[in-house]
Amino acid sequence: MMSGKTLVVLALLVAGLGGFFYYDTYWLEPAREKKDSVKGRLWEVEPKDVESLTVKRKGETVRIRRTDTGWELLEPVKTRADRGTVDGIVTTLVTARVDREVAATPGKLDEFGLAPPETEVTLEVKGRAPLALLVGAKSPTGAWLFAKESDKPAVVALSEVVARDLAKPVTELRDRTVLAFDRKGVAQVDLQLPGEALTLESAEAGKWRLTKPRVLPADPDVVADFLEKLDGAKAKEFVEDAPRSLTPYGLDRPTTVTLWIGKDKERASRSLLFGREDKGKKGVYVMRSGEPGVMLVGEELWAAVPKTMGVLRDKVILAYQYDKVSRVELAGPRGPLTLERDGIGWKITAPESLKADTGAVNGVLWRIRDLRASGFLAEDAAAIPRFLPKPEITVKLWEEGIKEPRVLLLAASRETRGGQPAALAAVEGRGPVVLVDGKVLDDLARGADDLRDKTLLPAFEMSDVKRARVVSGGAPLVVDRKGESDWQVVEPKRGGTKERRVADLLVSLKALRWKSIVSPKGDDAARFGLDKPELEVTLLKADGGEIAGLLVGKSEGPQTYVKLKTSPTVYAVDSTLIRDLQKAPGEIPG
Predict the structure, then answer these.
(1) Any residues with CB less than 8 A from the CB of 237 and at least 6 apart, and which?
(2) Left (φ > 0), alpha (ψ -120 to 50) or beta: where does 432 sit?
(3) Tally of CB atoms within 10 A around 226
(4) What is the pLDDT of residues 167-201, one digit of tens each?
(5) Which pLDDT tens digit goes with each residue over 267-313?
(6) I need a labelling partner for 377 at 20 to 30 A (CA). Which of 50, 170, 255, 561 fits?
(7) How crowded is residue 22: how many other Cβ atoms within 10 Å of its Cβ?
């Protein structure tokens, strides 16, 4: 048994080892890693500590200093510098490693291209004296260059990457961002156009409103597209840094875009002036407010600038929440129609009770949702009776929690847009009266036959089908399910199957839709070839119960006549939908 003194000694040893491990891990190891990282470097400094960079090269001096947001070019032109490019140059310089010492005390520096040097570099570094480097000629192989620190005699060999970075032209050092701003922080946009001033204000996330010259909802897609293109715009060319006249560039009478970013005391503005278009260069001349330089930017930015109130205003005709719509009434050339939501689907309740085709109903609702104005004819609701005295189509939408419906009125127009017919549209009791795509009159002219569910077979799950029987020309083919996707022929004789062809058969049956009802009571079956069907398909459950049965009659051009075994009604279906069924007897066995 250990004594108390032994335990104390052991505890002290453990504590000491733990302390040493902590010291080694959190102090010694990082120090060793830092020492290894700077081993062989020309200078033992870090890129983040460099505060300015001066590069003197033949006929030019480039001076750059660090700012709170990146880098600023001071010479040969005062402007923003490209942060990524300058960061790269600084990193190349401070991490440059000496390959070897070429001459400890060189006799003639001109032998190394250092008298005079090709380039002189000065770095101002936080907390220490400036660092200066003379860069000379490249080695005969071109892989290295000769250099020396200005306060040391030795000539050393550095990677030619240093020379490459220092030779970058000023155009590569300049920030090509046309207007730097935080898109999320934009609260207001002012557009000063020839003869018109427009103001946009951010209403809420993703939504905007016009406040000048009048208060109107703004088109969020137009605003978002413009801000996105402005945010991403890069200068194609730095045309002139201090032009004597702005007239040649159309900037003496510019279109001005001003962005207001932030709120209250932090509110600040950024402005960009647009001049004339240059068709030959596929761009437009611009300049930043407060800066003398003229740039050329791509024509796509100018195209995105909203130049009229009509372009900027919201063009949505009828805004609603799809998942809240509970009832729809359509009145048009095919008579009145009422639809009501039925769970996740829809049902027709008038003129007769029918299951609706959810996809077709959604198509109508989405067509209304996506309807956009192509022109504005009158702003006041009082003008609606003058433009739409007898609407051709009326759509009423009821939303949950809202007592009164939203009512959309539509009629044909004599006007065209883009050479295509237009239609008149308005929301009852509200302005404006607008022009819309004329196709909407056909798209919304729907009756019960257009929107009813035309699924031919009753709904079933493919996994519930345990046996399928196909009779063609009096010859039966019966397949039984033996697994999740395995099938076996059991009649006329046992054998394997091409499982994929069985799956194709079931998918084709589920997808069958009828085009028209040709005989509601099934009269004159021989007329449709259903007295002696060309094909009979029966699907059965595990207990032998019938899931569905289909009889296929004759084809006439693009349509084929069919009926269910349990109903007398004869339907016409698209002949192309029957082809997989007709091929099944020959393709399933395998």
Answers:
(1) 281, 283, 295, 296
(2) beta
(3) 21
(4) 999 999 999 999 989 999 999 999 999 989 999 99
(5) 999 999 999 999 999 999 999 999 899 999 999 999 999 999 999 99
(6) 255
(7) 10
Please give the backbone phi and psi of residue 83, each rounded to the nearest 5 degrees, phi first. -60, -45
Q: Which stretches of 279-359 are assigned E, i.e. beta strand? A: 283-288, 294-298, 325-332, 335-342, 345-350, 354-355
User: If DSSP states are collapsed to H, E and C, what string results for 250-277?
Assistant: CCCCCEEEEEEECCHHHCEEEEEEEEEE
Q: What 3-state DSSP class applies to 391?
A: coil
Non-local CB neighbours of 86 within 8 Å, separated by 6+ positions: 53, 64, 70, 71, 173
Q: Which residue has the tokens 């500590």?
A: 49
Max CA pair span of the chain: 116
Cβ atoms 266, 247 nearer than 8 A:
no
Say if CB 120 and CB 126 are below 8 A apart.
no
CA distance 165 to 10: 60
DSSP 8-class letter at 28: I
Q: In whole angstroms, what is the distance from residue 204 CA to residue 249 CA? A: 37
Structure tokens at 530: 């259903």
Residue with tokens 């997808």: 511
Distance CA 21, CA 6 (A): 23
The DSSP annotation for 210-241 comes to: EEESS-EEB-HHHHHHHHHHHHH-BEEEEEES
